[in-house]
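Entry:
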Amino acid sequence: MTQVATQSTGLHIVVVGAGAAGMMAAAVAARSGARVTLLEKNTKTGVKILMSGGTRCNITHDTDSKGITEAFGHAKRFLQPSIGKFGPSDVIAMFHELGVETKREETGKIFPVSNRAIDVRDALHQSMLNAGVRLELRCSVQNIQPPSDSSNQWRISFDQNGRADELFADRVIVTSGGRSWPGCGTTGDGYEWLRALGHTIVATRPALVPLVGGTDATQALSGLTLPDVNVSVFTPDHRSGKKPKIQRRSSWLFTHFGFSGPAAMDVSGVMTAYDRIQDSVMRLDLVPETSEPQLREIFGRRAGEAGKRSVTNILQQWVPSRLALAICEECHPANTNCKLAELPNKEANLMIEKLKRWHLPVNGTRGFAKAEVTAGGVKLSEVDPRTMQSRLANGLFIAGEILDVDGWIGGYNFQAAFSTGRSAGLAASQIEDA
């Protein structure tokens, strides 16, 4: 990014966590004139960035700021100020300025042209170093203490390479992430620091996570991808027959353990909000482009040549052959190769029901180890959405996944990290109270 001469504010800011939000916050604060130290417990920055999007890194989505915030449910209003000031077009422009060209895929996802997540990470990493950020790796923060009567500075205690040490700062920005993908180092360390400082931590749970469940028939379809389905989830407080709690239309993947793919993962966070995930009802529309009356009209063509078509052949105009056969075996096991004219009305109705409202049992998820984001975290009412400053502790700023925000798959969560990190970096670097 183009370097802009700034006048030093004399403030020392410590940023904890060198992920997307942390590197953004550090770079912005340094360019605003603060002296910035970034602490990261891993041996390198942006580990989660490097793994994201199948190592391609989906940085944002082709929509406007409102389209991004719509993906965050209860956190929609909280994110409006930060994403409104730094939206998808701004993220794309930033990466172009940093030398990372981007492309839009058919789904609306924005990726680097190179398809290399490391290019995204390296750009952010170099940008903050160019801004003058001091980076300290292998620093495992143990405690964050607020200013006391004897000191007007924050005290950050950490271990680095097995040696205890501490730093003092005028402001602290916590961007240590949630609990998803703990192999990346995101093990929820920051929740205890912030709880000790008075913050409420909304119970955390996996989101954007593959679902465990299904039947022998669905597990036999393992590896089969459906490019366009509409999945609806009816939770215990949204009974079947009424409006679903969430509905998402995207691609779907059958697995040996259950279900994955964008559609399944997008609804997972809603399902994990309940103590018994199996009490929710998940319903799949396999043919969202075809209405139920259209299906009934096609299945009703019993006379002449139309009636001579095999049922599996008819199903294959909508679904892959493996799935067509599975539907036939479940709905009309007596004769999976029967002609349409031979298909009893009861079995035809079962097939239509399966195509439009296939109930699939879910009894769990793959957990935080396979979750892309964490639902829950720091209670949003305790953070100023314009500045990301704590409402409970002056000089403390909180951004990124550690907040109680989680959005759909498709670059939405990185966008939130960039936007909230930027807001925190700008506000923390101001001489007057943010």
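Confidence is low (pLDDT under 50) at residues 1-5.
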